# Entry
Amino acid sequence: MASKVYDWLEERLGLSAIYSVTLDRKVPKVNWWFTLGSASLFLFIIQGVTGVFLAVYYVPSPDHAYDSIQYIMNGVAFGWLIRGIHHWGASLMVIFVFAHMLRTFFFGAYKFPRELTWITGVVLLLATLGMGFTGYLLPWNQRAYWATTVGTEIAGTVPLIGPFITAALRGGTDLSGVTLARFFAVHIWFLPAVILGMIGAHIYMIIRLGIAGIPDKDD
Amino acid sequence: MAKSPHLSRNEFVKIVVGAVGTLIGSVIAFPAVGYIVSPALAALRGGGKDTWIPVGPLENYPLGVPTLFSFTRTKINGWEKTTNSYGVYIYRKNETETVAFSNICTHLSCRVNWNEERQQYLCPCHNAQFTVDGLVAGGPPPRPMDQYLTKVEDGTLFINFVEG
Ligand code: HEM
Ligand code: FES
# Structure
């Protein structure tokens, strides 16, 4: 029965081709450092799923943001677990993405023909850091408020356009409900969209080019 | 290879993967579903919770004249705190019998007022009239006025307020 269903789908969708292209690839002799990219991808998926769940109860308004998170922690079953995974996953993801970048750098995997893989990777790193920056404000507690005050102040030290950058980030002169709303939108819509697109391009190139092996003395 | 009566390695792996996969899946699904449905469960569990609210010494209320007592209740739902005010008409029929009527009209929830002259509760919205015993005397309401249970303890009157 199951195989009949599978055959029916296979005839129309060509599932086995997806499988062989994405997973049955030739891979050079590699080591554990080569798993960091997949680990980053896994963490991104975890962040996405737990984030969607947090959005069920979180309210991005100065009146309710803090209380809605208290509700998630104390009022809803397993809210502490979902928020905890999202909280720690955020730090882990930054660490893993960064370590993955170091491994591709030190193994020289960024060289021809993988320059674009590297460049999409740079965007992924920046977007991941942006997720951390925008997510940090959302609890709307003292730490979040002042960290973002300082962070947006630092962005203002850029010559000439600094004050404009600070005001653009804050959506005004001071941190306010406008800041919270735009950080929320960037955190759940803009940056995830960028990351998804970049992961798509990144992985397309990895599949197309294959991964670079461990360089030897002659490289 | 001849078909052996034992599990082949391939079949064994399939079964183990299926079992472990199901286990992991349910360990993930349980908190996920619980998280989403928990406000509904809390509502079912907490619904109809009641408290006895003291409304003052019984002797403060005159015999035979419905007297309004107002109070507020704060309700926390999720991250929202709402304070509602309620009115209750305390009507002492005689020395032993006391009734407490909600002043919420049973038609469409406007607040009714006791009219001493006409000896009726009148609703300003669609002209409902209720007798001193809360029965419908005219107008659109579908049922008599709602009542709170009452009790007297050490001379203090209590009404039974049902949450929700
Ligand atoms: C969300 C962040 C990222 C995800 C999900 C991700 C995912 C992956 C995956 C699954 C691979 C396959 C090989 C491996 O795992 O080592 C890979 C390869 C690669 N990544 Fe990333 N990556 C991310 C960020 C970055 C960053 C920040 C850089 C560098 C600036 C980068 C540069 C590369 C390069 C050059 C390769 C090719 C390696 C090779 O062909 O051997 N990636 N990435
Ligand atoms: S609400 Fe009282 S008469 Fe309609």
